[in-house]
Amino acid sequence: xxxxxxxxxxxxxxxxxxxxxxxxxxxxxxxxxxxxxxxxxxxxxxxxxxxxxxxxxxxxxxxxxxxxxxxxxxxxxxxxxxxxxxxxxxxxxxxxxxxxxxxxxxxxxxxxxxxxxxxxxxxxxxxxxxxxxxxxxxxxxxxxxxxxxxxxxxxxxxxxxxxxxxxxxxxxxxxxxxxxxxxxxxxxxxxxxxxxxxxxxxxxxxxxxxxxxxxxxxxxxxxxxxxxxxxxxxxxxxxxxxxxxxxxxxxxxxxxxxxxxxxxxxxxxxxxxxxxxxxxxxxxxxxxxxxxxxxxxxxxxxxxxxxxxxxxxxxxxxxxxxxxxxxxxxxxxxxxxxxxxxxxxxxxxxxxxxxxxxxxxxxxxxxxxxxxxxxxxxxxxxxxxxxxxxxxxxxxxxxxxxxxxx
Length: 406
Prior knowledge:
The protein is an alpha+beta fold. The protein has helices at residues 19-29, 32-38, 43-52, 70-83, 85-90, 92-102, 107-118, 237-266, 283-315, 324-350, 352-356, 369-378, 383-396, and strands at residues 123-126, 142-145, 151-157, 168-174, 180-186, 192-194, 211-218, 223-227.
């Protein structure tokens, strides 16, 4: 992959539901199926996103952003995933970074973060590792004080979704005395190496691969404390991160619906034993298209209902933290959304082949990308762990795990 030059950004960002947003989505959608098939990295589409100021969608308008509510944000995200699910997924941790700044309590830190966002810089991630530790907030990557001031960052991260396309990356690391810390550094800083080695069968263009950190210099103002890994405060950020993936899936299902309609239109023949010679007049084919459409509608409705619960948590924030009960309700809604959407999303994507038959499986059409992409997005957190946590919460009053990996 070769990165393209940054384009000049717009002073006025796109707004939810605006003609400018529609035009952006149309441009991003062009060739998305071919990019996925031929492994053409969407650098140009990410440049369009930056040019339009989409990365500041949630920033208040008074601060130079799009002023989107969380419902508007997730509506926009679903539409972006419909246009290109890879592009939507690439931006996941950037939008999480935005959300972190919106509730930051330190005025200086918040101002620096918002300035970075309104300058249309994108932030990737270096959180997870392929290590011996259980998945969560325990890391081999270290952030250690430097004798001359500041810190030194060393380690290796994986699942670095979006970092290859970003200007900065947010790294989490062990920071002594069983604490963890975060650092936001430019990806072109000496010692940072981002590799395009993601080989998953779905979401293949998200660059969800390796980030290497070799003696990276980190300045004092770039570091923030995340506390003890096993004692994280109750928040809504985990719910936001997880619902993001269901929104991507909802967008994928809208794309499945679109492809189902297009597939029927381009089919010139039907089976000799079908009820009619034209697929467009075949009631059984039309039934399948209708079922796919209903599943796409249901996924979007579920995501937006959960988005309202997260909005309530956001609205309850005081001194950086939401009301615990409201935050728990947001976690519950996001968990329920995942369990529900996962139960039908893969099947809906597979139904596309009932519309088109054997010819639809030809690689030139790349219609299997929808199932692959939805299934890959779902693997971030096992559905069965969500279901059992929901049951434990409802039956025994148990709290949800206090980390972003739930």
